[in-house]
Every structure is written in structure tokens, then in C-alpha cells.
Amino acid sequence: MKNTITICFANNKGGSGKSTTCSNVGAAMAAAGYRVLLLDGDMQCNLSLALLEEDVVLEYAKSARNLYYGIKEQKDLSDYIISTPYENLDLIPSSTLMSSIEFELFSKWQREFILRKLLKKVKESGTYDFILMDAPPTLGAWVMNLLCASDYLIIPVEASPWGLFGLANMFEFLQTTREMAPDLSLAGIVITKVDERKSYFRQTLESLNNLEDISVFSTLIHVDSNVEWAQDNSKPVVYYRKSSRSAREYNALAQEILATVLKS
Questions:
Q1: Of 38, 60, 74, 111, which is the most exposed, with the fewest CB atoms less than 10 Å away?
Q2: What HEC string does 78-95 produce?
Q3: CB-based contacts of 239: which residues, under 8 Å, 6+ apart?
Q4: Which of 21, 18, 13 is nearest to 163 (CA)?
Q5: CATH fold for domain 5-262
Q6: pLDDT, tens digit, 9 for 90 and up, residues 91-116
Q7: Which residues share a beta bridge with 8?
Q8: Cα distance between residue 264 and residue 261, in whole Å
Q9: pLDDT higher for 185 or 166?
């Protein structure tokens, strides 16, 4: 691969599975031999916790070696990359201080493009095939930063009665962002937390498939207790229990995403 491809996982609704999807797709890509950098853009640090023990995540969160300080000081983010226990998989950890990132961005010149600028050397170095970024469940200047720094957006949507809530706002926000970042593409929607016994799963699937010009990934991510056990052990499920249903699904989703973003 010649160019580093950047993908943002975002949805303004909480609980949609953004961090879990981002971490496991990244781990699946890394296991397939691709060099992957994960960027934790959420103050909840869930993406970091998916890869590292809690005490290690808290140590980075309290230090000056996390995404918040890189953005605040507007420094090249190469210096904020840390290794994970997994081959081909690195991380820029987050911090609870990210809760004030909107304030930090408020007075900055061309604030929507700060992250893009700070990732420029990382992307141009050719070290990574993919940068996967986890966004917080909000719509504001920081999420716009994440999207403006991305080549593709993937929207995880929970198969629940409220799963589609706010999706129209997400699409509107995407259109606004595209006015500043016209090369940003919506790779598709991935349906998460699926329980096919429930009628609202079919309603969710039907509603999403009826959206005009919006792709829905064919791989469904089902409810699986192995995901929770993996999270409790600070591991992606694709490493924690390779034979589990969810591990197979995330591997399949990673392949589907690869086929989508590499064809262009």
C-alpha cells in the first residue's frame, strides 16, 4: 500500500459500539498483516481500555503523553504513539481531559483541520497502512476535526428501538463536514448488538436498507458475552477468543471494510 488510509468510527448516539468495533476491526486488520494505528478520540478512553490494562491507561491519561496534550500543544502526533501487546497494532491513548477539547479548539486558527495537520507526518511516513479513529458520541468541533482528518467514515448503529435515534443529525453533520473536506466518504453503516429474535432488529435492518445511497455492511455484529469478557480482560475479542462468533464476525467485517476502502 502506498498511502495511509484513515477511517473514523462515529455516531452521535452513545452505546452504538464505536469503540468495540474500532478496536476489533483494527485488531483483525493487524492480525491480517496490515500495520494499524488506533487513535482514541474519546474522553472515556474505551478504545485504550480495549487494548491495555486499566492502570496503564490511567497512567497515560494522567501523563503528558496522550492525545489531549498533542492537540493542546499542536505537536506532531508521532511522539504520542505507544506500542500495544499486539503485533502491527499501535495506539495514541486518550485522557479524561479530552472533555475540555472543544474549549481548547475554540480560538485556534482553522480549528477543523488541526488533527489533520498533526497527523500529516504520521501519514506521510508510510509507517501505517491504516489509522482507525474512535470518536466521542457528540457532534461538534472535535468530531469535525476527526472527520476532516479521515478518508472514510463508518457509522456503527445499534439494533435497538433507539438505535436510529439521531442518525439524521449524523448525516446532516457529515454533509456540513464535506463542505470543508470534500474527499471524505461514507464507507457504510455497520449494525451492532444484533439479536435476531427481536422484532426491532428487522425494523432496524429494513430502515437502514431503505436509505438512499447509503451502504450497509452485510456483516452483522451479534450480541455475544465474549465481547464483554474480552473487555474485562482488556483484549480485543479477536485475540481473546478467536473461535467465538463475535471474533469471526469482526474478522469478516474487517475484510468487508478492506474490500470497500481498497477498491478505490
A1: 74
A2: HHHCEECCCCCEEEECCC
A3: 27, 31, 86, 230
A4: 13
A5: Rossmann fold (3.40.50)
A6: 999 999 888 887 777 666 577 899 99
A7: 133, 153
A8: 6
A9: 185
